[in-house]
Structures are given as C-alpha cells and as structure tokens.
Amino acid sequence: MSAAMDTESTYSGYSHYSGHSKKAHRQGRDRHKSPRSKDGSRSEKSVTIQTPPAEPLLGNDASRAEEGQDDNWGETTTAITGTSEHSISQEDIARITKDLEDSVGLDCKRYLGLTVAAVLGLLVFLTPIAFILLPQILWRDDLEPCGTVCEGLFISVAFKLLILLIGTWALFFRQPKADLPRVFVFRALLLVLIFLFVFSYWLFYGVRILDSKDTNYQGIVQYAVSLVDALLFIHYLAIVLLELRQLQPMFAVKVVRSTDGESRYYSLGHLSIQRAALVILENYYRDFTVYNPALLTASKSRAAKHMAGLKVYNVDGPGNNASGQSRAMIAAAARRRDSSHNELYYEEADHERRVRKRRARLVVAVEEAFTHIKRLQAEEQQKAPGEMMDPREAAQAIFPSMARALQKYLRTTRQQQYHSMESILQHLSFCITNNMTPKAFLERYLNPGPTLQYDRDRWFSKQWTLVSEEAVTSGLQDGVVFVLKCLDFSLVVNVKKIPFIKLSEEFIDPKSHKFVLRLQSETSV
C-alpha cells in the first residue's frame, strides 16, 4: 500500500509539472503572436511549401512565452465584450484571413491538377478501346472478316494496356508528400505531350477512318496497337525525366540552420530549386538534431551579461575637460570585458559538471530499476496467471524510482519540453517489451536525437517558406543560394557544383618488383 501511495505521489508531481509546462505553452502561444514582417522593397522571391493540413506547428512555445508583450498592444486590440474572454487584433485577423486564402488556393490547385491528370489518363486508356469498338458498332456489316493475325492483335493490345496501367499507377499515383509552390515542369510537359499525341491520333482516326468508313478492320486494329506502343514509349520517357535524370549527383549543397549553426552536406542531381528544397526538408527531419530554443536563450543571456561593460558619465558637464578620467574608465571597462571569458569558462565548466553528475545519477537509477523488473519477471513466472504484469504495468511500477533523476537531468539539459510523462512511459514499455537494456532506454534522453525521434506535435512545421532570388522552377546552378524559413528558424542552402575529375592511369609491371639486399659489416645479418 505504501509503495502504491509513493507511486501515485510521484505521478501526481510529474503530472503537475508537465501540466504546468503545457499550460505555459498554451498561454505563450495565445498571447505572443508576432505579426509578419512586410518588406515590399526586397528583390527576393518568396514562395511557400505547405505540407498536408491539420498538423501542429514546429517550435517550443515555452520560449516564446517568456518574451515580453508588445508595448502598443492596447492600441491595436479589439476587445470582444459579453461572454467572450479573448481578444484579437486587426493584424491577427488579416494574417488569419491570408492563411485561409492561401490554404484554399493550394487545395484548389492540388485538386485541379489531380482532376486534369485523371481525366487525361482515362482518355488515354479508353482511346485504343474506342478505336477498336467504333467500327464494330457503326458499320459492322461492311467490315472485312478479322483473321488470325487480327485476333492475335487483340491479345497484344490487352496485355500492353495492362502493362501501361500498372506502370502509370506505380509512377504517377502516389501519396503527395508536400504542396510545391509551382508546377513540376517536366510533369506538365509530359501531360501536354500526351494530350497532343492523343488528339492527333483522334484527328487522323476521324478523318481517315470514321469519315470514309474504312472496311479494313485489321488495319484499324494495327492502328490502335501503334497508339498503345507509342504510349509505352512516352511512359519510358516519363521514367527517364522524372526518376532517372536526378539520380546522378551533380551538386553538393550545404545546409546551415540559422540559429545554432548546425550544418549538413548533401549530394543532389539535376533538380529544380523547389524540388531540391523538398529533398532537403525530408533529410532535415532525419539528420538534424531537434531544434531547442531553450539552449539559445541561455547562450544569449550569458553573452549579454558578459558583454555588459562600465558606463562612463561626465558629471562635470560638457564644458569641463575630464578626458583623463574618461580614458581611465574606458580602460577599466576594457579590462573587465577581457576578463569576461574567464567567467564564461567557469560557468560552462560548472554546467558540464552538473550535467555529468545528474547523468551519473540517472544511469544508476535506471539500471537499478531495470534490475528490479528483471527479478519481477523471474519471480512472476511461478505465480498465478492473474498476477502477471503486462509491459505497461511493469513500466508504471519501475518508473517512480527513476522519475526524479530523469526529471532533474532533463531540466538541466533543457529537454523537458520534448518529453512528457506519457511519452516516457510508452518508451519504457516499448523497451521492456523488446527486452532492451537500460543503455538502450537512455539513448533517447542522454543525446539529442534527430527531429523524427520526438513527438510529431513538438517538431512538425505546417508551413515552410522558400525564399530565392532565382525562379523556383529553374534548375540548380553553381553558387545558387536559397533559404527555407519556418516559424522559429531558417535553413540557408548554398549550392556548389561537383568539380570535373580527371583520372589518369599508370601501369606497373608486376615483374618490376625486384629487390637487392645490401649487407654492411655493422649489421647482424
């Protein structure tokens, strides 16, 4: 009973901490929404990459909750009286309206493109069948009999259409990963080519076959077979342009996160700027560590404190000459700034010492907790089946013994906003289910992991903005720089072309490897 009460009290304390943190997050998000900057004089082109809707925003709301409120917020705030308890400014209304218009425009554009592609695909697959069936319907009695070769062409058309259908499904009918700001040029060109191709075939069919009521049915079937063959070649061209062309690396891009300077290098092929941005964002969520604004806030406060110097005042008035005293004060301020690096050094050393100390306590606590659960598993096997624990119950049983050490470590390393109590229990239950070691359980908390490792509602950005001086539909070139912006930070991308490498060959005759042993009187040989 006492163990259960301790467990409940530990849970309530951790839940109170998590609930208080989440409440602060919500209040910070509601009260501190900065308006968008409007700079009409910029020469850069800004477009938007928007992922599927109904997803939470990226970033830590707790860091924004600490910021001060705008000084002139009362001048632009419209209070809603009556039973309402909220207020909203005109800038927020304009921003929300613009977001709704942008989202509606993107949805319409996406559905319009899908509708046009679906209608054109249906026309492509029905055209060969219509070429074969129309003569049978309109002038069946006047047609020449279809021989063995003609009947064999029916089988050829059927299998080629089946292959074309499977290939089209595999290449084009995919779940969209993002909404790009502009159309994909090669895909649009392929759609136009297919439309012109089918239209020309229908035009020739209507003039030479329907008007004249051609009686050579085998020739009509061969005409339909030629259409299907041409469609298969266009599908092969689509594979080359959409898939194979971009596989060969041609450019090396450096991606730098603007806030903390973390960078990665990637190799890309012939891609447009908007598709290169999409590839970079996909790799960002996998390769970059999660963005933690709490670490940046601490570093900024330390820098501001250490850069603060002495202020010099001329108490004798502007007419008196106090240059000597002023120079002395400025020299003292300079000496103080010179010694600030020592304070920063000892402060960082003390922080590292506290992190190592709490890390050691956490490792010991987790190892002891996993030792208990192992003993429980060995002892529970001999008890009644009704008293057995599932992984969730086992995780809840051992979590209180490590909760305090884990909470202190996460606070020291400023990771508490990314790990809720429920996520920790789920991870602990997962480790127990798969018989993982304490080291495997701690791997998520001891080292900052990639962005995908954390809960989706804590890192996922609904909208990215692509800022580029070049057209986003143009291909990558040497020296191109573009920026991917989200709510809290931006990714600066610098493109460099992979240099041409000239490799020469030098042949060495295996028989030339001959050696002579030189003997000297001083050696022991």
UniProtKB/TrEMBL annotation:
Keyword Transmembrane helix assigned: yes
Biased composition (Basic and acidic residues): 36-45
Primary location recorded for the protein, binned into one broad class: membrane
Lineage: superkingdom: Eukaryota
Segments crossing the lipid bilayer: 111-133, 153-172, 184-204, 224-244
Key words of the record: Cell membrane, Membrane, Transmembrane, Transmembrane helix
Similarity comment: Belongs to the Vang family.
Name of the protein this chain belongs to: VANG1 protein
Organism of this sequence: Sylvietta virens (Green crombec)
Gene designation per UniProt: Vangl1
